[in-house]
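Below is how a single chain appears once it has passed through the pipeline. First comes the sequence as given, then the structure the pipeline wrote out for it. We keep one example in the README because the format questions we get most often are answered faster by looking than by reading.
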Amino acid sequence: MFSAHRRTRRMSPLARPAGLALIAGAAALGISLTACNGASASDSLADSGKAAGNAPARTTRISVNLQGSGAAAGQPVKVTLEAGKLKAVTVRAADGGALTGRISANGRAWTSDRPAAPGTSYRVEARDTEGGSAQAGFSTAAASKVNKLSLAPGKNTTVGIAQPLSIVFDHPVKNRAAVEKALKVTTSNRTEGSWGWLRDYSGRDRVDWRPKEYWKPGTKITLDAALNGVDSGPSGGWFVRDYRTAFTIGAHQVVKVDLDRHRLALKRDGKTVMDVPMSAGTPGGIKASWRGTAVLMSKEGTINMRSETVGLGDAYDKMVDSSMRLTWSGMYAHAAPWNAAYFGVANRSSGCVGMSDANAAALYRQVRVGDPFEISGAEAKGTIAEGNGYGEWNVSWADWLAKSALR
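Resulting structure:
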């Protein structure tokens, strides 16, 4: 709460008869603004009354809901005028950022559009329609715990038609509705889509925005995550910054994987540009491949694949070329020359989709992150889970909508 002498120092002198005075709560007395010559409050008011044609001067008062050096963050700033009408209010942070807001219909109050962020100092300036002005300041308490996030896809990238906008949080998010309200997705063609909350394969909270159907090529997408000042909830901590990213959708490409026919085809704009033999996971157990729609997560080139990392003991330890990740659980499409006898004949891999060196390299060159791999066939161990990579395409649209915290 501001003391009387601090409030007097922070108030600006007036050049017109009516003045604003800051009060620290509804029960506090208003303090009139003094003239530049150092006259007392009563002298200033008397002079103002004469300048206004001997009409008695009116002393208006304002209050700010957040005060002092340890104000609670996470709530909007509200400036209230006791009498008269506000003309303008500015609330600016020490780093120069400003909180926008709106004056109420009756002109008596101004409320910020966004909450005050933790660990931030703010300066409030208010003007009324009679020419009065006043200033105040407050600081919010620092966050005891900070929540951060990671975004996919990367900024200014071009991705495939199945790539969702995905956010993974460092800490749990209990206030999901508040967080989701702060996430604004803009598309160049008004694409229909929705946020859905899920548990990432890592065990962390995650929210994805996917369109109802695959993106149209050329669509431009922007995310503005106005999270600064939003509380994640218990055990989650505060967000202390905003995030922004943008990406573009590339060509219409779909990879079709038929487990039963042991074939892989790349289709671009509905035309088949590749159709090659392959061998997928051995059916009947843990080595079988997943079915459903997987989204190409990354193109990793030549990597070391070890069976113990996917729960298969010491079955293999290989350097593998043209590696294209499809799930977090370790399903890839890649070159597998050691399995050549089974290409187009049988599924005999440890879960991945293997091809010849030449075919894998050709596919690797043409696909991009975000392209869907539509995997069908009976020789599978189940459907890709929504959090195992980008498995949300295996969820019906109605079920996906139900995952939003705002529905």
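The radius of gyration is 31 Å.

See the next section for the split statistics.
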